[in-house]
Task: inverse folding
């Protein structure tokens, strides 16, 4: 039985040899088959019995079990980096955060006089806790007698860029409340016991120590910080100055005006 099987195998291989003889079609080499995409080099299998003559040997190439597997990345091929994630959008700055950049201080007018070149302007020297009083020009002639301005306690916006006001450099602004028609104007007043130079803040008493560092005059101008904050300043029914729902205060209490309710502050 084994001899008969050997003869049948031999006959099959002879037919394969004739069919794929060099004269008709070359037998692909293992290297050639390895270059075929998705096919790994075939393994030679002999159909001859061990005693068969080497001259009659015929090899058939059968594909490996891994044939058809997806091609892997070529050796040495550089991997493309993954795209960087898009940056998160910057958080919007709140009005309260902008207001904290303003240097608003308690001041005291030590001297006041009429501007020699402008009928509507007063000139004041104001103590804001610095080595020398600041010179400030204010358009209050039509709203406030000079006697009421002299020696008064005031609120000063101190980190505005200096402005030339008819030949006199004004270095700050006195803050005041005014009605919608701008016919009535009253200075904001710090509570009794406030100290010149103390920085004002908006909020509760315990929030005093949470104040951020004041912006420079250049930053206030460039980023329009005062223009962004001012529309949110108002006086309440009891004439207290507020930023939104946050009262303006010093260590001695809240800042107020005399009589104007629901007035804008500038």
Result:
């Amino acid at each position: 039985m084994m001899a008969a099987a050997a003869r049948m195998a031999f006959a099959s291989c002879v037919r394969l040899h004739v069919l794929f003889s060099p004269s008709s079609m070359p037998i692909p080499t293992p290297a050639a088959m390895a270059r075929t995409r998705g096919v790994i080099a075939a393994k030679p299998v002999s159909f001859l019995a061990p005693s068969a003559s080497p001259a009659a040997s015929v090899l058939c190439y059968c594909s490996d079990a891994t044939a058809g597997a997806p091609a892997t990345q070529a050796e040495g091929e550089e991997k493309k980096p993954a795209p960087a994630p898009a940056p998160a959008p910057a958080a919007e700055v709140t009005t309260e955060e902008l207001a904290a950049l303003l240097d608003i201080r308690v001041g005291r007018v030590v001297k006041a006089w009429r501007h020699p070149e402008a009928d509507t302007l007063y000139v004041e020297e104001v103590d804001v806790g610095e080595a020398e009083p600041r010179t400030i020009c204010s358009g209050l002639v039509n709203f406030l007698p000079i006697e009421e301005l002299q020696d008064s306690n005031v609120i000063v916006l101190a980190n505005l860029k200096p402005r030339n006001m008819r030949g006199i450099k004004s270095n700050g602004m006195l803050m005041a409340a005014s009605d919608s028609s701008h016919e009535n104007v009253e200075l904001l007043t710090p509570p009794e016991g406030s100290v010149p130079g103390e920085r004002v803040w908006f909020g509760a008493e315990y929030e005093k120590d949470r104040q951020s560092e004041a912006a420079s005059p250049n930053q206030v101008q460039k980023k329009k910080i005062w223009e962004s904050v001012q529309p949110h300043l108002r006086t309440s029914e009891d004439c207290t100055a507020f930023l939104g729902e946050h009262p303006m205060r010093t260590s001695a209490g809240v800042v107020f005006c005399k009589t104007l309710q629901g007035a804008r502050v500038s």
User: Anything to note?
Assistant: DSSP finds six helices and 17 strands in the chain. The mean pLDDT is 80. The longest strand covers residues 104-114. Residues 95-265 form a domain with the OB fold (Dihydrolipoamide Acetyltransferase, E2P) fold (CATH 2.40.50.140).
